[in-house]
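Quick start: what a row looks like.
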Amino acid sequence: MSKRAVLEVIALGVEDAVAAQAGGADRLELVTDMAADGLTPSAATVAGIRRAVDLSLRVMLRLADGFAAGDADRLVRVAGELREAGAEEFVLGFLDAGGGVDLAAVERVVGVLDGCPWTFHRAIDRAADRDALRKQLDGMPGLDTYLTAGSADGVDDGLSVLLAEAARRGEPGYEQHLLVGGGLRLDHVPTLLAAGVDGFHIGGAARPEGWEAPVSAEAVARWRTALDAAPA
């Protein structure tokens, strides 16, 4: 690969953030409540992490379990509060009842982000038509990344989809970075790197003792070493 692969680690608080940075993470995804697969953290948490580390921070905009937008007015208000707390990068993604992208909700939220970069998260893995979703979002201000496992069931099941999408990079709807996460293991890394994937996202893999324990700097360092071992 021609450049260092991005390693993004889920952080729930300052302790996680500090350990992830020590282990060699490039970026953090800030969330709370992993029992609901990651919801929006408080503005105070974001501000505290911002003071503790100098990594890029992507803050989740998701107020309830599932992939419906819910209260769009509240989402817009929360996004504004997070911007005031220093958030400059975000993670979001909303589907309608039929599994299509909820374009109205995405546009409303993105409209208050002032061009900040953002990731469309694993809602894409629940979409009725991944390709249609990508093409509908093509050109959306700030959208630079898709976080995906290729399947709602994880990377093992979605690997062929990930490889196919990596091969389409540069086509309309496929210009964004492919950030792979969701059941991602170290043994997936060589295949993904060889396909040109340059983004890796870990949560549980950074916590060998489970979600009740903090991020392990040593676990993150193992991922950093594996990513950096790829031929240039």
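That is the whole record. The radius of gyration is 16 Å. Residues 12 and 43 are 12 Å apart (CA to CA).
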